[in-house]
């Protein structure tokens, strides 16, 4: 077991690692013909920036996510569980490529999986 006093954010290398992982991750997402069309009208620079904040905050880092609520952003885009699973699979591949250890990878993937219902529209946006 790694140091329980530290956060996943710190253990994987903080802001620098998150930035590299997110950049690589979206390269994989955009190279996936089933996912690419979702992003055709999206500013990828802004998205990468928001996703770095989101991941950092979700992994216990000292960063506040300043974007919109996940259900608000994703609702109505037709994102299914199948798309979500592909997305998470690309994240898994990226984390392994960056040599994040298996325990941290499992932790990150299970945290991300908790957002499935917000992303796939099973929960309506509150606003
Ligand atoms: C747990 C998984 C996911 C997380 C944590 C996540 C997170 C985010 C964040 C933080 C943003 C930026 C919000 C903002 O601009 O304020 C965003 C935008 C977006 N996400 Fe996701 N996302 C996830 C899954 C997905 C999936 C599976 C798809 C599609 C296959 C997707 C498609 C999009 C698109 C198209 C946008 C940009 C919307 C725009 O153009 O403004 N996301 N996501």
Question: What key phrases describe this protein's structure?
Answer:
single chain; 127 residues; mainly alpha; 58% helix; globular; binds protoporphyrin IX containing FE
What does this molecule look like?
- This protein has 7 helices and no strands.
- The chain is mainly α.
- The chain is globular and about 40 Å long.
- The model has no long low-confidence stretch (mean pLDDT 93).
- The chain binds protoporphyrin IX containing FE.
- Protoporphyrin IX containing FE (HEM) binds next to helix 3, helix 4 and helix 5.
Give a topology summary.
Elements: H1 8-11, H2 14-30, H3 44-58, H4 70-74, H5 81-97, H6 102-113, H7 116-119
Protoporphyrin IX containing FE binds next to helix 3, helix 4 and helix 5.
Strand content: under 5%
Query: What is the string of helix and strand elements?
Result: HHHHHHH
Task: Report the end-to-end length measured between terminal Cα atoms.
Answer: 41 Å
* Mean pLDDT figure: 93
Outline? globular
The counted number of beta strands is 0
Bound molecules: protoporphyrin IX containing FE
Question: Low-confidence stretches at least 5 residues in length (pLDDT < 50)?
Answer: none
Count every helix, treating DSSP H or I runs of 4 or more residues as helices: 7
Main sheet attributes: strand count, strand direction, barrel closure: none
């Amino acid at each position: 077991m790694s140091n329980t006093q530290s956060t996943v954010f710190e253990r994987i290398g903080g802001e620098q690692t998150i930035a590299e992982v997110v950049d690589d991750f979206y390269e994989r997402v955009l190279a996936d013909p089933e996912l690419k069309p979702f992003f055709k009208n999206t500013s990828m620079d802004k998205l990468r920036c928001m996703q770095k904040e989101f991941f950092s905050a979700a992994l216990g880092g000292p960063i506040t996510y300043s974007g919109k609520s996940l259900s608000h952003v994703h609702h109505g885009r037709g994102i299914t569980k199948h798309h979500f699973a592909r997305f998470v699979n690309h994240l898994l591949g990226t984390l392994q490529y960056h040599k994040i250890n298996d325990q941290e990878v499992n932790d990150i993937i299970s945290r991300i999986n908790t957002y499935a219902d917000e992303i796939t529209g099973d929960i309506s946006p509150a606003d």
